[in-house]
């Protein structure tokens, strides 16, 4: 489909803008492209205007939504390769983030946790498309297999 949309950005309500900006820059690896005081910030990677918006317009000091309600399941952040994912995972663990899940989906490998406001976050990398698992008819055959975190972390570039 030639006119199919792509996902442009995610915009989150947060309770504390400084805390959210610190998380998404220091842990996820985005950078701030614009900030509107303590009310909103826009973050991106690769020179884009923004992949993530954060605001406190209606949520300053608010609590996360209760479990079992509708809303965002997670925002997924795609890393270019497995070592970049490993580095992001290392930053998350060093920041004290509690992992909520990890999986090898065949097409990708991912780790899952919540941001400081309780929003779901997925960090992942995609295998090359030619390596994606397919059934006998050529359809994608994604899985939910275990992911070896120690092996992944061993690929993180050494930083000083």
Which radius of gyration do the C-alpha atoms yield?
17 Å
Strand content: 25-35%
The profile of the biggest β sheet is:
4 strands, mixed
Q: What shape does the CA trace take?
A: globular
Estimate the mean pLDDT confidence: 94
Task: Explain what this protein looks like in three dimensions.
The chain has 160 residues and is α/β, with parallel strands linked by helices. The protein has two domains: 9-59, 2,3-Dihydroxybiphenyl 1,2-Dioxygenase, domain 1; 74-160, Signal recognition particle alu RNA binding heterodimer, srp9/1. Helix content is 18%, strand content 26%. It is built from three helices and eight strands, in the order E-H-E-E-E-E-H-E-E-E-H. It has helices at 17-27, 82-94, 149-153, and strands at 10-13, 31-36, 40-44, 52-55, 75-79, 101-104, 108-114, 120-126. The strands form two sheets. It has a four-stranded mixed β-sheet, with helices on one face. A hairpin with a 7-residue loop joins strand 3 (40-44) and strand 4. The mean pLDDT is 94.
Question: What distinguishing features does this structure have?
Answer:
2,3-Dihydroxybiphenyl 1,2-Dioxygenase, domain 1; 4-stranded mixed beta sheet; 3 helices
Write the layout of secondary structure elements.
Elements: E1 10-13, H1 17-27, E2 31-36, E3 40-44, E4 52-55, E5 75-79, H2 82-94, E6 101-104, E7 108-114, E8 120-126, H3 149-153
Parallel strand pairs: 1-4, 5-8
Antiparallel strand pairs: 2-3, 3-4, 6-7, 7-8
Task: Describe, in short, the structure shown.
The chain is an alpha/beta fold.
């Amino acid at each position: 489909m030639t006119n199919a949309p792509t996902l442009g950005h995610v915009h989150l309500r947060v309770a504390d803008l400084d805390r959210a900006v610190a998380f998404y820059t220091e842990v996820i690896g985005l950078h701030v492209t614009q900030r509107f005081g303590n009310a909103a910030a826009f973050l991106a990677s690769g020179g884009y205007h923004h992949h993530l918006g954060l605001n406190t317009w209606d949520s300053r000091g608010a609590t996360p939504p209760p479990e079992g309600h509708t809303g965002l399941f997670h925002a997924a952040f795609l890393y270019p390769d497995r070592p970049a994912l490993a580095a992001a995972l290392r930053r998350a663990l060093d920041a004290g983030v509690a992992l909520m899940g990890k999986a090898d989906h065949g097409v990708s490998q991912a780790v899952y946790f919540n941001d400081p406001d309780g929003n779901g976050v997925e960090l992942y990398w995609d295998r090359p498309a030619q390596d994606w698992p397919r059934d006998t008819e050529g359809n994608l055959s994604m899985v939910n297999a275990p992911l070896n975190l120690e092996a992944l972390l061993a690929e993180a570039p050494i930083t000083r």
